[in-house]
Amino acid sequence: MLDLTGKNALVTGIANNRSIAWGISQQLSKAGANIGVTYLPDEKGRMEKKVRDLTEPLNPSLFLPCNVQNDDQVTATFDAVKESWGRLDILIHCLAFANRDDLTGDFSDTSRQGFQTALEISAYSLVKLAQQAKALMTEGGSIVTLTYLGGVRVVPNYNVMGIAKAALEMNVRYLAAELGPGNIRVNGISAGPIRTLASSAVGGILDMIHHVEEVAPLRRTVTQAEVGNAATFLCSDLASGVTGQILYVDSGYEIMGM
What we know:
This protein has helices at about 20-30, 45-55, 70-85, 110-135, 160-180, 205-215, 225-235; strands at about 10, 35-40, 60-65, 90-95, 140-145, 185-190, 245-250. By secondary structure, it is α/β, with parallel strands linked by helices. The chain has one domain (about 10-250): NAD(P)-binding Rossmann-like Domain (Rossmann fold, 3-Layer(aba) Sandwich). Helix 1 packs across helix 7, helix 3 (about 70-85) packs parallel to helix 4 and helix 4 (about 110-135) runs parallel beside helix 5.
C-alpha cells in the first residue's frame, strides 16, 4: 500500500551512510519515488563526491548543490526541479547545525552569532524551502522534517539546538495551517538518538543511546530505516489526513517519566 510510484521527492541533508536522510531516501526509493538529492557544496568538492557515490544506487534524477544560507542557491535548486520535473510531490528536510561551542557549557553563554546560525540553518531553512516548494506542489504534497525530544525537554549538551528544534516544530504547525488548503501536508518526525555525523557533535551521544536502550519500552534505539519507513508513511496517501503533527519514532522513550 505504500506506493509512491510517479511521485517526485527532493531530499536534503544527506552527508554519509549514517545520515537519517539517507535512510529516508532509501525507503522512499523502495516505495517507487523518483529521487532528487541536494548536497552542501564545499570548495574542494568533497561532499559532492561523497554524496554522489553514496546515492548512485538510487539513480537520482536530480543532484543539486544547495546551501540554505544562500538564497540564490535555494532558488536555483527549485528552478532546476521545475525545469526537470515540472512539479514536486515530496520535500524531506533533514538540516540542522550549531557550533560545537554552543552545545556545551552554560546555555546562557550562547553567542549571538551562534544562536542566529543554529536558528537559521536548523529552523528558518524549512520556511525558506517550503516557500519555494509550495509553488511546485500543484497536485498537493508532503513536507517532512526531522526534530528531536530536546526541542520540548531539556537534554544535556543540546543547548541552543533545543531552541532551534522548538522553533522548527512550531514552523511545522504554522506551515501546515498555511499550506493545508493547497492539500500540502507538513509533519515532523522526532527520532530517537542515532549515531550520525550531526549527532557526533552532541557530547555524550553514546551515553544517550545506551540510556534509551535501558529505559525505552522497546529497550532499544531506532534505526535510520525505521525513521525512513515513518517518513514514507507520512508522504503516502495512507497519511492523507495527517498534518501539523510531530510523530515520535523513538522506541517509545518519549512516554517515560523516569
